[in-house]
């Protein structure tokens, strides 16, 4: 019990001495040991790394989960060391609503069929989003959190120890200065000077040792940057994969809708019969018809007679293929990424498509798969 009381009294005395030293430094009444410029630069670099890591981490969390309530829930589960329950993505929820709507409104109607098509695409988009969130969390968010909750806490602890050692050192310097000033007045203070010098040597040794430990940790920030750089590459890779998947899913959906006339042309009877005064031309102009190459072909014939297709008067252009493309039928031209082909358009052709030629082969190609060259 006596030992514990003495230790508590000693700790209280050290704390009081440090508080006095710190206060006097703030008011300019005491000298302060300054760290060298290199050490100060290491401290500033470490603080910047910590601050920007926190901001990047928080904003990435917002990107992956825009719902604040959901983020709070995930944070609480993480702190309680419990598994976060699986959550339906917005795309998957939209797909569910569309499928239920199609079931109720009639899955065989043009609108119902289209709802089912879009529902399947939204379901795939939702699954791709789920994979992206999972991958980004593991490869990017987790390393950033590990730095803030691991390495940075260690650095902060050693910096606090260094601050205490510096305060002790400066307090010893102040005591030695006072002892020497008193010695000048009377020779009775020699023992006090010796004691102050001994305390100063011990404080200087402890400060130097702690400064070296802290410096090594601060220099390790360079390794942290290398690790975060690697994680950043992984994050960009997962994001690229995600958006490429979304792009392919939407292109496939667009192709499906383009082959489904009911999606664009109403097949139901009008709510009221047209007025007898309405001319055939006016009535035709009100029908939402999308012009395509297929509409130019006579009924019963192929949508695109490749042998009869020739470049338009506007001429041809070269194009570089961005992605592989598999032809859906004989009217389309299969593409390989990075190859060069000749392209041109035809009057009345869907603006999302061009005629592509490679050697003696020709067919329709999607514009979104091409980079047109001047």
Topology:
Elements: H1 2-26, H2 37-64, H3 68-79, H4 90-105, H5 110-183, H6 190-219, H7 221-258, H8 280-285, E1 317-321, E2 340-344, E3 353-358, E4 361-366, E5 370-372
Antiparallel strand pairs: 1-2, 1-5, 2-3, 3-4
Could you explain the architecture of this structure?
Homodimer, and heterodimer with SH3GLB1. Pfam families: BAR, SH3_9. Residues 314-374 form the SH3 domain. With 374 residues, this protein is of the alpha+beta class. It has 8 helices and 5 strands, in the order H-H-H-H-H-H-H-H-E-E-E-E-E. The chain has a 5-stranded antiparallel β-sheet, with no helix packed on it. A hairpin with a 2-residue loop joins strand 3 and strand 4.
Task: Summarize the structure in short.
Homodimer, and heterodimer with SH3GLB1. This protein is of the alpha+beta class. Helices cover about 60% and strands about 5% of the residues.
- Helices and strands, in order, run as HHHHHHHHEEEEE
Classify the helix fraction into a percent range.
55-70%
Specify Rg, calculated over alpha carbons.
37 Å
Instruction: Give the distance, in angstroms, between the N- and C-terminal Cα atoms.
Output: 90 Å
**Residue runs with pLDDT of under 50 for 5 or more positions:** 262-303
* Class per helix and strand makeup: alpha+beta
Family: Belongs to the endophilin family.
Keywords: Coiled coil, Cytoplasm, SH3 domain
InterPro entries: AH/BAR_dom_sf, BAR_dom, Endophilin_B2_SH3, Endophilin_SH3RF, SH3-like_dom_sf, SH3_domain
Protein name: Endophilin-B2
């Amino acid at each position: 019990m006596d030992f514990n009381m003495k230790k508590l009294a000693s700790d209280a005395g050290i704390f009081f001495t440090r508080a006095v030293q710190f206060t006097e430094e703030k008011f300019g009444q005491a000298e302060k040991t300054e760290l060298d410029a290199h050490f100060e630069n290491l401290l500033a670099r470490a603080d910047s790394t910590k601050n920007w890591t926190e901001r990047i981490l928080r904003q990435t969390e917002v990107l992956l989960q825009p719902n604040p309530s959901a983020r709070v829930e995930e944070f609480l589960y993480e702190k309680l060391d419990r598994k976060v329950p699986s959550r339906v993505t917005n795309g998957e929820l939209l797909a569910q609503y569309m499928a239920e709507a199609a079931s109720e409104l009639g899955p065989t109607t043009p609108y119902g069929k289209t709802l089912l098509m879009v529902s399947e695409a939204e379901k795939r988009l939702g699954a791709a989003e789920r994979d992206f969130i999972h991958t980004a969390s593991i490869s990017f968010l987790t390393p950033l959190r590990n730095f803030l909750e691991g390495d940075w806490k260690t650095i902060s602890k050693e910096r606090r120890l260094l601050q205490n050692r510096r305060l002790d050192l400066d307090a010893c310097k102040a005591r030695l200065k006072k002892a020497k000033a008193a010695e000048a007045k009377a020779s009775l203070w020699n023992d006090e000077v010796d004691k102050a010098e001994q305390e100063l040597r011990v404080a200087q040794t402890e400060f130097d040792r702690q400064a070296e430990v802290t410096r090594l940790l601060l220099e390790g920030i360079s390794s942290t940057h290398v690790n975060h750089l690697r994680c950043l590459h992984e994050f960009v890779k997962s994001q690229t994969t995600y958006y490429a998947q979304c792009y392919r899913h939407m292109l496939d959906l667009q192709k499906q809708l383009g082959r489904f006339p009911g999606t664009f042309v109403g097949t139901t009877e009008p709510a009221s019969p047209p007025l007898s005064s309405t001319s055939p031309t006016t009535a035709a102009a009100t029908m939402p018809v999308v012009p395509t190459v297929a509409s130019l072909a006579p009924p019963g014939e192929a949508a695109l007679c490749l042998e009869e297709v020739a470049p338009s008067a506007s001429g041809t252009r070269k194009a570089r293929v961005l992605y592989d493309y598999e032809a859906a039928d004989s009217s389309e031209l299969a593409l390989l990424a990075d190859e060069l082909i000749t392209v041109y358009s035809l009057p009345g052709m869907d603006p999302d498509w061009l005629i592509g030629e490679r050697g003696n082969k020709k067919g329709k190609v999607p514009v979104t798969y091409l980079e047109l060259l001047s």
